[in-house]
Amino acid sequence: KNEVEQSPQNLTAQEGEFITINCSYSVGISALHWLQQHPGGGIVSLFMLSSGKKKHGRLIATINIQEKHSSLHITASHPRDSAVYICAVSKRRKEETSGSRLTFGEGTQLTVNP
Amino acid sequence: ETGVTQTPRHLVMGMTNKKSLKCEQHLGHNAMYWYKQSAKKPLELMFVYNFKEQTENNSVPSRFSPECPNSSHLFLHLHTLQPEDSALYLCASSHAGVSGANVLTFGAGSRLTVL
Question: What DSSP string describes chain A?
């Protein structure tokens, strides 16, 4: 079983719909990341959060540390939102470390149709 | 462009070839990473460099050899690869803070095909 699980694996929506992608993890973390990968490969960091909620434009990310669960919401979805959305966690380590070592989920392929 | 530049974007090589992937960032970051993304699998961390020193080798076969001459440049030298090494290789960079949780900036990736 992966330490980071995402659902759904694939999601198709109509333009304007409200979208939710879920992420569950089974390890102690120092932070959770949401990333976006467009066709061609480039990855963009959307959010890094360790508690509560963050909002950027039409994107909202929430995290519940007790339940080890995070959600990414997209309001008023648009075809340009079509991409793979990836959840990743920075695992909490006993020793101090530098930099980020992320453990990734398998990603959610989102397609938004006009 | 994200600030992390990878070259080449596409590479086709035979199993006996030697080639290198290059990554460059001028974001003032001190940590650089190589990740591998195979079809239908999550990204896998390969190597981490902090201030030019390798701090993690995630059990990567020796046919992959990283080099970090300075905090702005990272190479991945490839030799005698196998077809199963065909994948997207992503470079990333971040600040090297001790929190263990820093935002990564990714390059566009180098798509490698091994024949």
Answer: --SEEEE-SEEEEETT--EEEEEEE-S-EEEEEEEEE-TTS-EEEEEEESSEEEEETTEEEEEETTTTEEEEEESS--GGG-EEEEEEEEE--SS---S--EEE---EEEEEE-
